């Protein structure tokens, strides 16, 4: 018997929503049931342009999507300043939530978001797509192998792209009232998550923001970096920017080997992804590993999220707390970096998670 697909509503017609509409179509256990925009004409245009199924409804408001009984879950790609309002509204309507990153403007806002989801028994997951690629699983196994990799000592991550004049003037990610975290919240989110992933989500003790970040006249960060410190001596650095050509590098250095890749957030190839291992204790010195995936990483993300929702709907399972916990840890580090910048580049201690993880 064929699996009943999870029915998605999409709130907003942002460019990234086009990618997710395709991902939902590719996932074997999901379908777009509704698209909502501030105008019904815009919603209809989005539906036509993205090839949504004829059964998908086009609404002229986000509320209408949340009120639709044929919607099980929502994908929310709205500006970060709107996340708390619309996630809370979705959760109260019993809709499971796949939320675009950055998930919140602060850990305090995210705590409210997670509390609303928990109170209503709905699954929460942020849309950090590379987490769901099989390459990520393979690299995790290597980093956890003490015989081959040794002890993790240093991590470097970089995610940048050149936004261009129009982007730097008009994009929502440079508007203080829409996405005030700027590059730190956007590409910096990926850098911080990658660092935490490499440490198996062990929070650093302190962070120290790099001096001379680039900040626009509205106070939005266009380029910044930071160093993270752990009590056991691990160190990590990251740099994120809207001002330089595209780079998405990740390097993890261990006592016996290192791992390196140049496309950690968005693989250069949709159905395969490389990583390289360097070890002075093996031959050859450098080995290349190619991981094949049957679906793009964003479709794998949708598939995993839909499986969790189906288990809650069909089996009475509880929402998986792993995903909000990872979001909170990422947000806590992001908040500490922002605080270090605001305080004149002082070291800032990373707080403990604001809610229980079990």
UniProtKB/TrEMBL annotation:
InterPro entries: Gfo/Idh/MocA-like_OxRdtase_N (IPR000683), GFO_IDH_MocA-like_dom (IPR055170), NAD(P)-bd_dom_sf (IPR036291)
Annotated Gene3D superfamilies: Dihydrodipicolinate Reductase, domain 2 (3.30.360.10), NAD(P)-binding Rossmann-like Domain (3.40.50.720)
GO molecular-function terms, A-Z: nucleotide binding
GFO/IDH/MocA-like oxidoreductase domain boundaries: 146-260
Pfam families: GFO_IDH_MocA, GFO_IDH_MocA_C3
Limits of the Gfo/Idh/MocA-like oxidoreductase N-terminal domain: 6-125
Family: Belongs to the Gfo/Idh/MocA family.
Protein name: Oxidoreductase family protein
């Amino acid at each position: 018997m064929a699996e009943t697909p999870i029915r998605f509503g999409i709130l907003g017609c942002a460019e990234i929503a086009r990618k997710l509409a395709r991902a939902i179509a590719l996932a074997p256990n999901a379908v777009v049931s509704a698209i909502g925009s501030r105008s019904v004409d815009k919603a209809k245009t989005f539906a036509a342009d993205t090839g949504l199924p004829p059964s998908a409804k086009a609404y002229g408001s986000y509320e209408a999507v949340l009120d639709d009984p044929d919607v099980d879950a929502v994908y929310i790609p709205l500006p970060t300043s709107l996340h708390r309002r619309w996630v809370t509204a979705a959760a109260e309507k019993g809709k499971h939530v796949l939320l675009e990153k950055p998930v919140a403007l602060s850990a305090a806002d995210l705590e409210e978001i997670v509390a609303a989801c928990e109170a209503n028994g709905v699954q929460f997951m942020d849309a950090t797509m590379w987490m769901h690629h099989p390459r990520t699983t393979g690299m995790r196994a290597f980093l956890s192998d003490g015989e081959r990799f040794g002890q993790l000592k240093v991590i470097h991550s970089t995610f940048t792209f050149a936004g261009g004049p129009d982007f730097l003037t008009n994009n929502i990610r440079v508007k203080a009232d829409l996405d005030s975290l700027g590059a730190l919240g956007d590409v910096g989110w990926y850098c911080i998550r990658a660092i935490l992933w490499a440490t198996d989500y062990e929070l650093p003790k302190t962070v120290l923001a790099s001096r001379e970040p680039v900040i626009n006249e509205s106070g939005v960060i266009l380029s910044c970096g930071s160093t993270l410190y752990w009590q056991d001596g691990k160190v990590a650095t990251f740099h994120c920017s809207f001002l330089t050509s595209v780079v998405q590098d990740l390097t993890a250095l261990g006592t016996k080997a290192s791992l390196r890749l140049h496309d950690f957030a968005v693989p250069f190839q949709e159905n395969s992804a490389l990583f390289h291992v360097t070890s002075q204790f093996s031959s050859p010195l450098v080995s290349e590993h190619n991981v094949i995936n049957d679906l793009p990483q964003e479709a794998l993300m949708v598939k995993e999220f839909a499986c969790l929702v189906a288990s809650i709907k069909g089996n009475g399972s509880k929402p998986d707390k792993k995903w909000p916990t990872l979001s909170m840890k990422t947000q806590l580090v992001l908040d500490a970096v922002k605080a270090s910048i605001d305080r004149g580049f002082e070291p800032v201690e990373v707080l403990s998670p604001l809610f229980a993880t079990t």
